[in-house]
Amino acid sequence: MDFANLAAQLNAGTILPEGIVIITLMAVLIIDLALGRASERWIGYVAIGGLLASIFALYLQWDSANPIGFSGGFNADDLSIVFRGIVALSSTVTVLMSIRYIEQSGTALAEFIGILLTATLGGMILSGANELVTIFIALESLSISSYLLTGYTKRDPRSNEAALKYLLIGASSTAVFLYGVSLLYGLSGGKTQLTAIELGITNANLTQSLGLVIALVFVIAGVGFKISAAPFHQWTPDVYEGAPTPVIAFLSVGSKAAGFALALRLLTTVFPLVAEEWKFVFTALAVLSMVLGNVVALAQTSMKRMLAYSSIAQAGFVMIGLIAGTEAGYASMVFYMLVYLFMNLCGFTCVILFSLRTGTDQIAEYSGLYQKDPLLTLGLSLSLLSLGGIPPLAGFFGKIYLFWAGWQAGLYWLVLLGLVTSVISIYYYIRVVKMMVVKEPQEMSDAIKNYPEINWKLPGFRPLQIGLITTLIATSLLGVLSNPIFTLANNSVTHTPMLQAVTAQKAQVTIAKIHEQQEL
Predict the structure, then answer these.
(1) Cα separation of 184 and 189, whole Å?
(2) In what residue span(s) does the NAD(P)H-quinone oxidoreductase subunit 2 N-terminal domain sit (predicted)?
(3) Do 222 and 251 form a contact (C-beta atoms < 8 A)?
(4) What is the C-alpha to C-alpha distance for residues 134 and 122, in angstroms, rounded to an integer?
């Protein structure tokens, strides 16, 4: 094979954004080795610059004529571009909120950013991986980096405990997932590409075999862990409470987005002939996630634990779009993940600022915050109200789009359950807002009475301010000016051949059923 044919098969330009992240990672490590502690003041901005350049490279790849790279191992279609963008954007905001937090913890910033960029790289490749080995390596890059980040503040016993729990449960879920994909490899006759696996299973007439059902269950278990869906959520509350707050901010958005991208690609490509089975399983997961997440969040006293159960519930809402299996359903998933990125990271930025200034994350300690810090109160209030789905914020339109897509697909009782649990969620979100805003001065908590003077000029606070204001503006405006995001989400689905084939096949089945009913 000559070089031109090899280059055409590789099509290495498909991973240009990931290449930029790798170069940024190497630059961070080399600068840290060369300059030591002196580099920590601006090394975060090097990482942010590299991530923004990666996002720009993703923009240039939109509607690429040849999105398949590495002989089919990687697919840079529009759907993967959106999910890779979500992972890169979440990492960018995480770096902004990390600089002061990591410095105050007394640990090395460059190492933290290096591990975070490795997790970002894993999440981005996972979002476009189209082959089993690539999927597994990307998943492990994301997972192992996440374990390291969770236990990064070594002097904090809670962080060590969270990392150990995350590692043990994560290793178990990885083993289950790996066993599931190894079954797929065997059933398809030794194929690793997703499309070839589906073709091999169909040709061997194994679409109703017990092995395929077991593989499906194991794959769903692995994906369910990554998106923190109940009952695979056991790690979430403890990890959220014990891990460094910037880490859980990334896990709640970047890791979850990569998990949903993996779920979409695996289920629609490999398991289209058992779609009813996996939709039934995901319906059970969605019901459990929405009910458990929202009900248990009512009883939480820690802000981080409350946001952990909120994250479980949000995964349940997003699954409605996946279960719908229509163009509108897939587009609503993308739309909601895009707005969830900003409203959730805005909330975590506020939690980090509050903990840096007071040293606590207990909900009761937020009492009377408006009297001392109006900007922080505004940011946290709007992000929580948006997560609850209060109009006209971005979260309201995201939930409306998800519920509308589910209703169109005939998921009436699931949408009604989503509406009921959304109302429940509004209670625990508004409880925090009321505590911050309504309390009289004499009812201030001790933390607020001793609240330090606000000074954004302190080292590391300016990036936090930029992150807070950016995410706050996005959360506020993306609801009213949601049309560009709405168009982006729709185009990412309509321009992706994989999803178009699935929706076309579903339409044909529906038409066939209508004809059968008419004949009867």
Answers:
(1) 9
(2) 12-99
(3) no
(4) 10
Distance, C-alpha 30 to centroid of its chain: 29
**Tokens read off for 303:** 């802000």
CA distance 297 to 426: 11
pLDDT digit string (tens) for the chain, length 520 residues:
566 676 666 778 889 999 999 999 999 999 988 887 777 778 889 999 999 999 999 999 998 888 888 888 898 889 999 999 999 999 999 999 998 888 888 888 889 999 999 999 999 999 999 999 999 999 999 999 999 999 988 888 888 899 999 999 999 999 999 999 999 999 888 888 988 998 888 888 877 788 888 999 999 999 999 888 888 888 888 898 889 999 999 999 999 999 999 999 999 888 888 888 899 999 999 999 999 999 999 988 889 999 999 999 999 999 999 999 889 999 999 999 999 999 999 999 999 999 988 888 888 888 888 888 899 999 999 999 999 988 888 899 999 999 999 999 989 999 999 999 999 999 999 999 998 887 677 778 888 888 888 888 888 888 898 999 999 999 988 888 888 899 999 999 888 887 777 766 665 555 555 555 556 5
- Which residue in 95, 94, 118 sits closest to 40, CA to CA? 95
The per-residue b/e assignment along 474-491, b for 16 or more CB within 10 angstroms, e otherwise, is: bbbebbeebeebbebbbb
Return the beta strands (E) in 41-110 as ranges. 68-69, 74-75
Task: Give dist(CA 279, CA 96) in Å, integer.
Answer: 38
Environment class of 124 (CB within 10 Å of its CB; exposed 0-12, middle 13-18, buried 19+)? buried
- State how far the Cα of 294 lies from the Cα of 509, in Å rounded to an integer: 36
DSSP, res 371? G
- Side chain identity at 417, as an amino acid letter? L
Tell me how far apart the alpha carbons of residues 99 and 112 are, in angstroms, rounded to a whole number. 10
H helix intervals, 298-411: 303-324, 327-358, 374-388, 394-408
d(CA 223, CA 242): 23
Helix intervals (H) in 327-373? 327-358
